[in-house]
Amino acid sequence: MLLETMNEQQKRHSELLRTHTELMKAHQNLLAGGAGAGPRPGGGGGAGKKANPNPILGVVRLDYDYPPAGGDTDCPASYGYDVIYRCVPGLTFSLCQSGHFTEAVEREFAEAIKFLESRGANCITGDCGFMMSFQVLARKIAGKPVFMSSMVQCPVIASAFDPADRILILTANGASLKPQKDVLLSSCGFKVDDDKFIIKGCQDVPGFDAVAKGQKVPLSVVQPNLVRRVKQ
Q: Is 112 exposed, middle or buried (0-12, 13-18, 19+ CB in 10 A)?
């Protein structure tokens, strides 16, 4: 069922990307003076130029299926470029949250990364923030840049703000974030300390438990409660 869903999502993404490309061409023709217009002055008509290939994002997926909403990492429509998915058999949400692999899952994880690279992925990420625990391993396996969790952005985000400013991190489970913090310190030399970062788990936000269960997230319930949590 997961493979069928992924194939349907891939097909939908391809259709959206094709429509987007057609709209962009129409927009360019409009700027140039219409579809039948000649080359713009001084433009040389673009003869002999090769278009850059579309970027491809590779996404390592947990072994559970749920209908992702727009904006979700697992929704192909969230992107304006190609995306390829690869599920890791046995890598459940609870296993990922623990921060430890079994030997069999580790092999599947390595195969997923190699598969994404073989399909032309320019960089690789994961669909769960708790994959930060596997950042170092993924970096050893991959020949392309890997960003297994949004947590790797912490150093860049922190450098953009005043030292006195505080940054809020929302996570599925606050207590389970410690392994990710330790990995960030050991692999990136960056400490997610309590003075700079406010870490809040969303495990008690009404409706958010669907994430852990691999079920469809009730957006009408979760969104207002998340907004309320952020304001608090």
A: buried
Token pair in block for residue 49: 């130029």
Report the pLDDT value the prediction gives residue 82, as an integer from 0 to 100: 92
Are residues 173 and 201 in contact, defined by beta-carbon separation less than 8 angstroms?
yes
pLDDT tens, residue by residue, 57-75: 999 999 987 778 888 888 8
The answer to whether 126 and 149 have CB atoms below 8 angstroms apart is yes
Task: Domain 2-6+54-231: give its CATH code.
Answer: 3.40.50.1860
- DSSP annotation of 150 reads G
Domain ranges of the chain: 2-6+54-231
- Reported as a single tens digit per residue, the pLDDT across 93-110 is 888 888 888 999 999 999
Nearest to 102 by CA among 61, 134, 70: 134
Nearest to 84 by CA among 95, 93, 76: 76
What's the token pair of residue 91? Answer: 């890598």
Nearest to 184 by CA among 213, 157, 211: 157
Give the Cα separation of 37 and 67 in Å (integer): 45
Q: Are 88 and 61 in contact (CB under 8 A)?
A: yes
pTM: 0.68
* pLDDT tens digits for range 113-149: 999 999 999 999 999 888 888 998 999 999 999 999 8
